[in-house]
Design brief:
about 25% helix, single chain, two-stranded antiparallel ribbon, 2 domains, 13-stranded antiparallel β-sheet, outer membrane lipoprotein receptor (LolB), chain A
């Protein structure tokens, strides 16, 4: 029944939650021990394989069938089946050669992981561009037009974080009360009604109703977690429990890590049409996080988690918009999550967010004995 959890949520969580990812991947088997006919990506954790393949597909602007062979359609669902191990297509052998080239360049030439990736050259096309576009840009003239008399001094990471915590209302009494959020959830594969109840620091219940899946509920009291659908209740354990506990930060009024002491202010970046301070946090040798704070309002506009893999970085992104005041808290009424798989992009739009002090913590507890 765990598998019946929203695929998009599970994949996003699995790749993006840095602390959890490191521990869960340690139990991963190398992909060559799980899949057939793995020739190049040996040593890659199996949990990363499909997202790495989506990254390659995005880089070339192609779908899986560009290299891989489809089987017969599933007669029950009508969905495609795949014979991943077959080598019938020349594009697959060329793809292997290109992967070897990337790995060789990074290991022997640049001597650092993911210095170049498939996207470095392809930029969404199967044929990398070889000529510069004409007429050429006049970089000298553009440089003179944009030349600033004095370089802008950026605030410190601590100043940016303090402003964010103040603006979002982190110290408001209402921040510790149950927050009820009602709206819709939409992705390429699902559309439905969403209700979330969140209570700091780590209690959450998420109820989702769709035409295809009916109603399902996920919840955690901060220690245990469970999932319920028409077939019953299942307790969530092991790695899935850690993922569930980490996932609820999406709905927390404070959407940054507990520790940002090692954050570095990189530059002013653009998020849509807004200027934003970009803060970078190094989590480990292979993991990092980027936080984008609105220069004017101080609110968090975007959060990106990056996991470096054999072939390149897997980035997972949260976008927060339409902030409104809710009992002294600034909360986003639109949350978009996305990663390298197009079908995982999910938009949550809330039409009602309120503080409800009457709710009892029992709603986060397992409703009855878990099914075997």
């Amino acid at each position: 029944m765990i598998q019946k959890l929203s695929i998009s949520i599970l994949i996003i969580i699995a790749v993006s939650l840095v602390a959890v990812t490191a521990s869960s991947q340690s139990a991963d088997k190398p992909v060559e021990q799980v899949r057939k006919n793995i020739q190049v990506l040996k040593g890659l954790p199996d949990s990363q394989l499909f997202l790495v393949m989506n990254f390659v597909g995005d880089s070339l602007g192609v779908h899986c069938d560009y290299c891989h062979v489809k089987g017969e359609k599933n007669p029950q669902t009508g969905e495609d089946t795949w014979i991943w191990e077959k080598d019938d297509k020349k594009t697959k052998s060329v793809g292997r050669e290109m992967m070897r080239m990337v790995l060789d360049l990074n290991h022997n030439v640049f001597k650092r992981e993911a210095a170049v990736t498939c996207y470095t050259c392809h930029r969404g096309s199967t044929r990398p561009e070889r000529m510069a576009p004409l007429p050429p840009r006049d970089f000298v003239k553009e440089g003179l037009q944009t030349l600033q008399p004095q370089k802008k001094v950026l605030p410190s990471a601590q100043e940016i974080i303090e402003k964010y915590l103040s603006v979002v209302g982190a110290k408001q009494t209402s921040a510790s009360s149950p927050i009820v959020m009602k709206g819709t959830v939409e992705s390429r594969s699902i559309a439905g009604i969403l209700e979330v109840v969140f209570k700091q620091p780590n209690k959450c219940m998420i109820k989702q109703t769709t035409t295809s899946q009916g109603q399902n509920t996920r919840a955690t009291n901060g220690t245990t977690a469970w999932f319920q659908n028409a077939k019953g209740v299942t307790e969530i354990t092991g790695d899935n429990l850690r993922l569930s506990l980490a996932a609820i930060r999406l709905y927390n009024p404070v959407k940054i890590p507990d520790s940002v002491s090692n954050a570095t202010v990189m530059r002013i970046a653009k998020v849509d049409d807004r200027d934003a301070y970009l803060l970078r946090i190094e989590i480990s040798a292979t993991e990092s996080m980027q936080l984008f704070f609105d220069v004017e309002s101080g609110l968090l506009l975007r959060r990106v988690s990056v996991t470096n893999t054999l072939l390149g970085p897997l980035n997972v992104q949260w976008d927060f918009s339409d902030y409104r005041d809710v009992s002294g808290l600034k909360l986003p009424f639109v949350i978009r999550t996305s990663n390298v798989a197009a079908f995982d992009t999910t938009i949550r739009r809330f039409n009602e967010i309120r503080i409800d002090t009457t709710l009892d913590d029992s709603i986060f507890e397992i409703p009855h004995a878990a099914s075997p």
